[in-house]
Design goal:
The protein is an alpha+beta fold. It is built from 3 helices and 4 strands; from the N terminus they run E-H-E-E-E-H-H. The N terminus is likely disordered.
């Protein structure tokens, strides 16, 4: 009689793991795209874990910007693994570029508003020094206070207009990145199946 000996190693699947942190608005894109590179959501972790990032001051009201940590796994033995990894790196760089494009909108707006606000503050400081001088120079105080007040009012309007202009400028670039991401994911899917 022959007895069958079962190999204890048969049936074992080795996995490699990956953890990524992205802004909440890009989490769905990553959850949909990573399977194109052989990754699946890791069932041993929560699907998403949110954590507060930095305070984002837009349009006068502070709101917390949340980031999401996603956990993935894929089989260690995978056909075309090198090419899939290269495509995944391209995908990751596209995601980073999308984040940078989104951040550049508010960065340019904030910088423009800050520069004008600081210039306005400098005029107001000159106006204050003119009024506290001995004897007070009233005509100089008024002359410096007017651009100072304008420098304090204009940043609110300037911020919104620069934000609108940058948004209109960046939207076509973002659409190009999304098209590039679609092409990368299609190539990855073809390599898997």
């Amino acid at each position: 009689m022959m007895s069958e000996v079962k190999n204890p190693g048969v049936g074992h699947i080795g996995y490699e793991y990956r953890e990524i942190t992205v802004p909440r608005e890009l989490s769905s894109l990553c959850l949909d795209s990573y399977p194109c590179f052989g990754w699946e959501q890791d069932p041993n972790h929560e699907a998403m874990h949110t954590e507060p990032s930095r305070r984002d001051f837009r349009a006068g009201s502070p709101e917390k910007k949340e980031v999401v940590t996603l956990y993935f796994r894929r089989k260690r033995i995978l056909c075309n693994k090198a090419e899939l990894t290269r495509l995944q790196r391209n995908f990751d760089s596209c995601i980073a570029e999308l984040q940078a494009l989104e951040q550049s909108k508010t960065t340019a707006s904030t910088m423009a508003a800050l520069v004008i606000g600081i210039i306005g503050t400098a005029f107001m400081a000159g106006s204050t020094f003119a009024v506290t001088a001995e004897p007070p120079i009233i005509w100089l105080t008024i002359l410096l206070a007017i651009p100072g007040l304008i420098g304090w009012i204009v940043p609110c309007v300037l911020y919104r207009s620069v934000l609108r202009r940058k948004t209109a400028e960046i939207e076509p670039l973002k659409e190009q990145k999304y098209d590039e991401i679609d092409q990368i994911c299609e190539k990855g899917t073809r390599l898997l199946y």
